[in-house]
Amino acid sequence: MSKMCLCSFVVAISAGCAESVTPEELGDYTLWPSMGGDTFTVRGRAPGHGDTIRVIYVNPTAAMAETISPSYPLGSTIVKEIRNNVDGEAGDINYIAIMRRQDTVVDEGLEANGGWLFSEQRPAGSAETHRDLCWNRCHVAAPYNGAFYDYRTK
């Protein structure tokens, strides 16, 4: 099976395995940087996201985590807007990926998504859905307690 066919198969299967979730509302996460949170922009290819631009918002709890805990504390939320890459500039939002710290489980919590609730809005603004694929195929290997970048530091 070619890589393209395999990728299409995995995407099709994962789309069918989504479950609706109703977590606490995010509110306007774009305001987090003005409230003590932060924002980062990452460009280029990334597993699971392709050649996109990811605009990442970190809530104040996650941003200050380094001073109060060796890991992200309960209430940490990271929002990733996956946007079209239009000649190196951020285009329209393809979807929004959301990580919410729900549990303090770290090392022993691999079976429980490392203590995170992973959800998506496809399209942006729609109801959130959860797929185990985010944790099982990707974030389980992340070096910062489920996150690939230590958003607590610059």
Task: Briefly summarize what is shown.
The protein has 154 residues and is α+β, with helices and mostly antiparallel strands. Helices cover 18% and strands 34% of the residues.
Record the SSE blueprint.
Layout: H1 3-16, E1 19-20, E2 38-46, E3 50-58, H2 60-63, H3 65-68, E4 77-86, E5 89-101, E6 116-121, E7 128-130, H4 133-137
Antiparallel strand pairs: 1-7, 2-3, 3-4, 4-5, 5-6, 6-7
Q: In total, how many domains does the architecture comprise?
A: 1
Helix fraction? 10-25%
CATH architecture: 3-Layer(bba) Sandwich
Strand content: 25-35%
CATH class category label: Alpha Beta
Reading the helices and strands in chain order gives HEEEHHEEEEH
Structural class: alpha+beta
CATH topology: Chalcone isomerase
Strand element count: 7
- Please tell me how large the radius of gyration is: 15 Å
Please give the largest β-sheet: 7 strands, antiparallel
The average pLDDT score comes to 74
Low-confidence stretches: 1-15, 150-154
Which outline best applies?
Answer: globular
Distance between the termini: 42 Å
Number of helical segments? 4
Strand order in the largest sheet: 1-7-6-5-4-3-2
